[in-house]
Amino acid sequence: MSDEHLSASLAAGAEDGEGRWAFGTGFEDPLHGVDTTVPDGVDAGALAALCLALGDDALVGAQRLAQWTTDAPELEIELALANIGLDLLGQARLLYARTGQVDGTGRGEDDFAYWRDADAFRNVRLAELPRGDFAFSMARLLALSTWRLALFQRLAAAPDPVLAAIAAKGVKELAYHRQFAADWIVRLGDGTEESARRMQAGYDEVGPWLGELAADTSAEPLGGDAAGAAAELRQVWEETARAAGLTVGAYPAHSGAGRSGDRTEHLAPLLEELQSVARAHPGAAW
């Protein structure tokens, strides 16, 4: 598939450019005015667990993207990565707010983001790996955004209207995230000898972590269709590789699962960076 055809194919999920960076951070209560009653027939435990896990994916992913600030190859790329991170941060806020309502604890966004240690997080482990070089970051962004987009498209019809609304709002954003990553992977893979080497290395490093995404069934009780999301991830991963001239290997999967609490050694230092100010000045406000 040519890069033009790949671009058109992936862009099909985004009707226009509006709403790419729609969440932002300039509001107090992300679910203000929304009926947050859990509908009859919805398993509140499964809903809370899923919202927490998806929120953790977004928060950890946003923090890794924030590490490109002042260090990206170009100013335009830096701004794009910062805005993608803000999209994910906005999704995390909504998902954490829903978690605190559904699990009965009444905890808010800051409680989930700043006052949990690494062993309480339930994100997929790919999100917590070190930032790496730009090629690795693009391979990771493609994998996570493709998989998350596939889930959100299905969760837009979830029986919980709040989760459905969060997912529907995130679809356009995630379609752009996926497109941004795919475009850069093709550009690097079809570029210089050095850029192609690095892009292949990034693909090879991310590849073994795809198995964890494909095996995640946490969204099944809410209509997530894990098998469908896994198939879409594999299709986009392979189509992008072909367009970029990359080789997709038979990657051996890593053992363990972030959803079950298995962590790499990289999450705790990342959270220390994220949580240090809040923990040093508890209760502080602007």
From TrEMBL:
It comes from the Bacteria. Pfam families: PaaA_PaaC. InterPro entries: Aromatic_CoA_ox/epox (IPR052703), Ferritin-like (IPR012347), Ferritin-like_SF (IPR009078), PaaA_PaaC (IPR007814), PaaC (IPR011882). NCBIfam families: PA_CoA_Oxy3 (TIGR02158). This is Phenylacetate-CoA oxygenase subunit PaaC.
